[in-house]
Amino acid sequence: MDTHGRLPRRWQLRRGGVRVGGKGYAGMGGASPDVIKKDFWGYDPVTDKWTAKADFTGPVRAFSSPFVIASDGYVGLGTTTTSSADDFYKYDPAKNSWIKITPYGGDPRYDAVSFVIDGIAYVGTGNPGLKKDFWKYTPTKKP
Fold first, then answer.
1. Residue 98 phi, psi dihedral angles, 5° rounding
2. CB atoms closer than 10 angstroms to residue 66
């Protein structure tokens, strides 16, 4: 399915999104905390089109913490329909596929901050309980 301009699904509560290789990717989130989706979309600014991508393979979530390292997008943490999450998944745009990666080292959480410096991701703070810790993730090098 292709659609022009706007993201096809509206009213998403805190969807996850990343920019990889000049294209945008967004998905998950939902109309409310108890109605969360697994869909994932890619946006091509040259054609101004959104295209459906592989659904997120982890538990549905909102308020996740996305980041990008090299040519891969990562989405993790957040709140599921029943609890806070502590897992992360990697999206490979070239293969249009998701894989679960090393679990987050801290407590499950949502609203965490994430950023990347020199190919290393840093993720921390968040809720519940106003967390103050930070963790780092260094991906394995591709052959």
1. -115, 145
2. 23
Contacts of 75 (CB under 8 A, 6+ apart): 16, 18, 28, 56, 58, 64, 65, 66, 88, 89, 91
Please list the pLDDT of the chain residue by residue as tens digits (143 residues). 445 566 655 545 555 677 778 888 888 876 665 667 888 888 899 999 989 999 999 998 888 899 999 999 999 999 888 899 999 999 999 999 999 998 899 999 999 999 999 999 999 999 999 999 999 999 986 54
